[in-house]
Amino acid sequence: MTALPIPEVPHLGEADTFWRGIAADELLLERCRSCSAVVWYPRGFCPSCGSGVTLEPASGEGAVYSFSVVHRGAGEYRGCEPYVVAYVELDEGPRILTNVVGCDPDSLVIGARVRVVFDHGPDGSALYRFTTV
Ligand SMILES: [Zn+2]
User: Fold this and answer.
1) 42 falls in which pLDDT band (50, 70, 90)?
2) Phi/psi at 26 (nearest 5 deg)?
3) How far apart are CA 99 and CA 104, in angstroms?
4) pLDDT > 90? residue 70
5) Separation of 37 CA from ligand 1 center, angstroms?
6) CA-CA distance, 116 to 129, in Å (whole number)?
7) What is each CA distance from 115 to 15, 18, 26, 27, in whole angstroms?
8) How far is the CA of 49 from the centre of ligand 1 (A)?
9) Among the four 6, 32, 50, 132, which has the fewest Cβ within 10 Å?
10) Whole-prediction pTM value?
11) All domains of the chain in start order, with CATH
């Protein structure tokens, strides 16, 4: 199994601070200043009430909500098989689409506890993924 590629992530507008956090090995979550909702994905405002948000460190821990094992990757993912694409439910609530790495895909189960890891590319790009604990 080859290491999964790290896509180039555009650093745009409201999500720029979030991606800078990922590059610094920190998973940040937006929280609404008005209704305290945790906002995922990062967008700079609360989709529930339209108020502004603040960024706060996430625990980086959660559980596998659902997953699929990919046996036929495409594009840059060809040759990385088998790999896991999963929804991880963070302890703070959001469910985020990601990869679960560093585990035997055949032994992964829904509900498995995971924690964030950060993969860094040679060009400074970085991506959050999760591994079992
Ligand atoms: Zn709100």
Assistant:
1) very high
2) -135, 125
3) 13
4) yes
5) 6
6) 6
7) 22, 18, 12, 11
8) 4
9) 50
10) 0.91
11) 13-57 (no CATH), 59-133 (2.40.50.840)
